[in-house]
UniProtKB/TrEMBL annotation:
The keyword Hydrolase applies. GO terms for cellular component: cytoplasm. GO terms for biological process: proteolysis. It holds the Pfam family Peptidase_M17. It comes from the Bacteria. This is Probable cytosol aminopeptidase. InterPro entries: Leucine_aapep/pepB, Peptidase_M17_C. GO terms for molecular function: manganese ion binding; metalloaminopeptidase activity.
Length: 397
C-alpha cells in the first residue's frame, strides 16, 4: 500500500485541483480483478490518499466528490470486465439488487415470465437464443426532504442502460475478433446502475431511476431472425434487418416502458450502440443526441468537467425515412445504404420510443473500452459516462 500526501494551496482553484488530482489518482489505481481472487471492493481506495490544506471544508467536499466519481467508475469497470461465463443477465440482476439494497434503494426485477406477460417483445427476442434468460431491473432513489429548494425544482431523471451481457451478433454473427470484447457490451447498464448509486451517495436533490434491460444475444433454435417482425412494449411493431443491432431493441422496450410508467422529467439512455459512432468520433468522444438544446449544453458542460468528452450530433430529420418499414411500424436498421450515418439512424429509431419526453442518447461505443492503459484510463472497460452523469445531476436545476 502506497500512501500519497497532497498539499493544497489557498484560492478559488484549490478544491477543483484537489478533485481533479484525486480522481486521476484513484482512477489510475484501478486494476482488473483476476478470476478466483477475492472480490474487489466497489469503493476506490481513498484511504491511500491524504489531502492537507487550510481550506478544510471546501477541500474535503472536493475530495468526497472525487471519491464518489471514482467509486462509480470502478463499479462500471468491475461489472463490465467480469467475464460473461460468470456474468449472465441473472448475475447482473442479483449484483444490482445487492448493491441497491445495501444503499437503501428500491429495486424491482422482472424475469422472463413477467417480461412476457407485460409484452417486452424486444428484450425477449434478443434473449431468446440464449440459455440464460433476460431480466429487466429498476433501481430507484427518492431523496428525503422537501420537493425543492430555492432555485431548484425536484426533477425525476431516468437513466436507461443497454445491458447485453454478451453479444455474438446472433444469427447475423460477428467475426471472431469483434466478439472478443463483447463482455463489455453491458457497459451502459453498468453506468446507469453506478449513476443511481452515486446520486444516492451524494444525496442529490432529484429523483433518479436506473432501468437495466439485460439479455444475452446468442444464436440457437429459438433465435430471432432477419425478416421477423417483433411487437415491442406498448404495441409498436419492428421489422428486423440485422440481429447484431440488438441494443436498440432492448433499449426501445425499456424507453417506451419508462416513458409510459415512470413519468420522467428527463430521460437519458447510455449504450455501446454503434460501430458508426466510434468510426466517426474515435475512441475518446461519445456521440450525444438530445431533443432539447439546454440538455445538450448541460451535458456538454458536465463532460468538460468530468474529462469524459462528448460530441453533439444532429437528429437529421431527412433520415427519418430510414427507420420506416413497409411491413411494420418501424425498421430497426435502414434498408438503403444511401443514408449512411449509422449512429444517427440508430438514434432516430430510439427517439420513436421516448414520446414527448426531454431525452438524450449517449452512444459510448468508442470510449467505453480501451486497448491500453493511458493516464487515468485503464485497459479494458473504462467506466466512461458515470462521472459525466453524476456531474450533470449535481448541477441540474
Amino acid at each position: 500500500r502506497v500512501l500519497t500526501t497532497v498539499a493544497t494551496e489557498p484560492g478559488a482553484d484549490g478544491p477543483r485541483a484537489v478533485r481533479a488530482f484525486a480522481e486521476g489518482y484513484l482512477l489510475a489505481a484501478y486494476r482488473v480483478q483476476r478470476i478466483g481472487a477475492p472480490a474487489s471492493p466497489t469503493e476506490a481506495p481513498a484511504e491511500r490518499l491524504v489531502v492537507v490544506g487550510r481550506e478544510g471544508v471546501r477541500v474535503q467536499a472536493a475530495l468526497d466528490e472525487a471519491v464518489r466519481g471514482a467509486t462509480a467508475t470502478w463499479l462500471v469497470r468491475d461489472l463490465a470486465n467480469t467475464p460473461s461465463s460468470t456474468k449472465d443477465p441473472a448475475w447482473v440482476a442479483d449484483r444490482a439488487s445487492e448493491l441497491a439494497r445495501a444503499a437503501g434503494l428500491r429495486v424491482e426485477v422482472l424475469g422472463p415470465r413477467e417480461l412476457e406477460a407485460q409484452g417486452f417483445g424486444g428484450i425477449l427476442a434478443v434473449g431468446a437464443g440464449s440459455a440464460s434468460p433476460p431480466r429487466l431491473v429498476t433501481v430507484s432513489y427518492d431523496p428525503a426532504g422537501p420537493a425543492g429548494t430555492a432555485g431548484r425544482r425536484r426533477q425525476h431523471v431516468v437513466v436507461v442502460g443497454k445491458g447485453i451481457t454478451y453479444d455474438t451478433g446472433g444469427l447475423s454473427i460477428k467475426p471472431r475478433e469483434a466478439m472478443v470484447p463483447m463482455k463489455t457490451d453491458m457497459a451502459g447498464a453498468a453506468v446507469a446502475l453506478a449513476t443511481v448509486l452515486g446520486a444516492a451517495a451524494a444525496e442529490v436533490p432529484h429523483r433518479v431511476t436506473a432501468v437495466l434491460p439485460l439479455a444475452e444475444n446468442h444464436f440457437g433454435a429459438s433465435s430471432y431472425r432477419p425478416g421477423d417482425v417483433l411487437r415491442m412494449w406498448g404495441g409498436r411493431t419492428v421489422e428486423i434487418a440485422n440481429t447484431d443491432a440488438e441494443g436498440r431493441l432492448v433499449l426501445g422496450d425499456a424507453l417506451a416502458w419508462a416513458d409510459a410508467t415512470l413519468a420522467p422529467d428527463v430521460l437519458v439512455d447510455v449504450a455501446t450502440l454503434t460501430g458508426a459512432a466510434s468510426l466517426g468520433l474515435g475512441k475518446q468522444h461519445a456521440a450525444l443526441y438530445a431533443t432539447d438544446p439546454r440538455l445538450t449544453a448541460a451535458l456538454e458542460a458536465a463532460a468538460a468537467e468530468s474529462g469524459e468528452p462528448v460530441w453533439s450530433m444532429p437528429l437529421v430529420e431527412d433520415y427519418a425515412d430510414a427507420v420506416r418499414s413497409t411491413v411494420a411500424d418501424l425498421r430497426h436498421v435502414p434498408q438503403d445504404a444511401k443514408y449512411g450515418g449509422g449512429s444517427i439512424t440508430a438514434a432516430l429509431f430510439l427517439r420513436e420510443f421516448v414520446g414527448t419526453r426531454t431525452w438524450a442518447h449517449l452512444d459510448i461505443a468508442g470510449p467505453a473500452r480501451s486497448t491500453a492503459d493511458k493516464h487515468e484510463v485503464t485497459e479494458g472497460a473504462t467506466g466512461f459516462g458515470a462521472r459525466l452523469l453524476l456531474r450533470w445531476l449535481a448541477a441540474l436545476r
